[in-house]
Design brief:
alpha/beta; Rossmann fold; 7-stranded parallel β-sheet; binds ligand FO1; 3-stranded antiparallel β-sheet; globular; 14 strands
Length: about 300
């Protein structure tokens, strides 16, 4: 059993490769839910959906989110009716959020809803939300505090970031199956996701970080950073706000208590000694996943490292 910690887009690429390289039913994916938000009364869980759509072969790989070929007719009508429509929800994607919201309103937990949705879409890997309780990533900027989606989508991650917090995390528990999956894993993979706002919320759920620190299984991460910038998105900006270097060394610092190995870009080889000094073994590779072949190759390299 392989356990994967992930956010959305960057993680989905590696997970697509992993699911092609091994039996997908051997993968348990623990997903960030700090980005979740309510739009038009519907509960949207972007990272869970990105991973589910990816494994169902439905994802829009160009955008990195949503369903390939989706249309936006309902959204246009919502706009005409005077709604705020900066968050782009496609027509087919809306069906997911309607189903999720209906089941949550019927009393199902997010983990049970996620299980239902992935089974309906014939996804063979297990997808677990980090928690069934609401934990909302909040981004403090000079103009005030924003939800993650307000920061990321509405404001296109332009505002200066002062700090990030995860209200609800302290009182939350890991979703059913999360701690068992980590405890029984043969290996754990930390995806090239944002260490602060994708993996950070997962680690903020009481018990998850400790489970990772206690596991005897190898823990291998892939850096989301090359040089001083993220491969995509605002990880560099958020890492600096959280007090880390915007670099592979900063990534290693975020995970040093439980990470055994970190895959880094060849360009970052000069940082290898500083990563090693943190107790993490750096391995240089081509970590960009521009093509399908890249995803398979990198997944293969990660699997080779965890099998060592
Ligand atoms: N990201 C965007 O940049 N713009 C969007 O309008 C947008 C809509 C959207 C709808 C459903 C969904 O599941 C994801 C969506 N995302 C969008 C992606 C999402 O905001 C981020 O990728 C994640 O939250 C970060 O991991």
């Amino acid at each position: 059993m392989l356990v994967v910690l992930t956010g959305g887009t960057g993680g989905a690429k590696l997970i697509e490769g992993l699911a092609a390289e091994i039996d997908p039913s051997e993968l348990t994916i623990i997903c960030n839910t700090g980005d979740d938000a309510i739009f038009h009364g519907l509960y949207v869980s972007p990272d869970i959906d990105t991973i589910t759509y990816t494994l169902a072969g439905l994802s829009d790989s160009e955008k990195g989110w949503g369903i390939r070929g989706d249309t936006f007719t309902a959204l246009e009508q919502l706009r005409r009716l005077g709604n705020d429509t900066w968050f782009n929800l496609g027509d087919k994607d809306l069906a997911t959020h309607i189903t999720r919201t209906k089941l949550l309103n019927e009393g199902l937990k997010l983990s049970a809803v996620t299980e239902h949705l992935r089974r309906q879409l014939r996804v063979r890997s297990r997808i677990l939300p980090m928690s069934d309780q609401r934990i909302e990533t909040r981004v403090k900027t000079p103009e005030g505090e924003l939800s993650f989606q307000e920061f990321f989508v509405k404001q296109r991650w332009a505002p200066e970031v002062i700090s990030v917090r995860f209200p609800g995390a302290e009182q939350a528990q890991p979703a059913p199956g999360v701690l068992d999956a980590i405890g029984n894993a043969q290996a754990i993979i930390v995806c090239p996701s944002n260490p602060i706002t994708s993996i950070g919320p997962i680690l903020a759920v009481p018990g998850i970080r400790a489970a990772l620190e206690q596991t005897g299984a190898p823990v291998v991460g892939v850096s989301p950073m090359i040089g001083a910038t993220a491969i995509s998105g605002p990880a560099h900006k958020l890492m600096v706000a959280a007090g880390f270097d915007a670099s592979v060394v900063g990534v290693a610092k975020c995970y040093r208590e439980f990470l055994d190995t970190l895959l880094i870009a060849g360009e970052d080889c000069a940082s290898a000694a500083r990563i090693e000094a943190l107790g993490v073994a750096p391995v240089a590779s081509d970590i960009r996943m521009a093509t399908q072949a890249d995803k398979l190759r990198l997944a293969g390299e990660v699997l080779a490292l965890v099998k060592k």
